[in-house]
Amino acid sequence: MAGKAKIDIAYLKEALQEPANFWGIAGFAVAAAYTQSVVPLGAALVAEGVYLATVPASALYRRYIDGRRKQQLLKDRERKRDRLLETFDPREKEAVIYLRHLKTQIYDNYKKFTGSNEVPANLKSLDQRWEDFVDLLDVYRRRKKHLRSINRQAVQNQLTQAERAVETAADERARRVQQANAEILKRRLSAFGELDRSVKLVEGQLQSIENFFGLVNDQVVTLPTPERVTALDFEQLSDSIAMTKQMLEETSDVMGTLDAHNREIGNLDLLTTGNKQ
Question: On the chain, which terminus has fewer CB atoms closer than 10 Å, C or N?
């Protein structure tokens, strides 16, 4: 025998805050004031108890709340992305706006040439690919800006000096200090290499997304049948983007570990994220 649906506190709070619930309680309060009787208040308590015992546990109400939350999350994400776009330079904004326009054009062309009123799910995934493009472009521009702020030759010169100091150290303590400094400098140079490779990878991925949008639009125009258009390999691009994001996360871990180690030994001037951001 199935048990009663469990009342989730989150849905209970939503139900309490519903305008219908508020106005219902207000109506009973007005009736009580008008009749100078506590009977409407008692009825209000009973009605509220039934309401809170049934509505938050209702599958229909939960679907409604879940849908409302999803819409709110989408709006919040759009606002966040709009704020991010405001930080882009004119050339970066142009690339983002062009790709968004191309996406809209693809949807319009699909409906026009196939006679369909709806865009299929895999084609609609271009919405997410456009968001990926914006996110990756943000990573690309920030990392490239950081690379431009780095004087690698200066770090290499510091490493050479540290290695020479290790060889000429007067005692074991001095040698260990210089050896630790040399290791940090080696790791920083290695991190620069990782950062440089990640920038090149993201640059290639951005070009791949742009080219895929162009390919889809070409196919929509030249192959105006739903089956031919939706046969395009959307998953390949999705997998490629996922791989790129994973690589970026790994690189971020490397840079974060390096910064943490620099802080521990007091080499604040070597922090990879503290200079000229």
Answer: N
Is residue 55 exposed (0-12), middle (13-18) or buried (19+ Cβ within 10 Å)? buried
Mean pLDDT over 10-16 rounds to 78
29 in Cβ contact with 41 (< 8 Å): yes
Amino acid 176 reads: R
What's the whole-number average pLDDT of the chain?
79
Give pLDDT, residue 235. 82
Poorest-pLDDT segment among 5-14, 27-36, 68-77, 165-174: 5-14
Chain centroid to Cα 99, Å, comes to 18
Phi, psi of 275, deg, nearest 5: -110, 120
Q: How far apart are CA 189 and CA 182, in angstroms?
A: 11
pLDDT digits (tens, 9 = 90+) for 84-129: 888 888 999 999 999 999 999 999 988 888 888 888 888 888 999 9
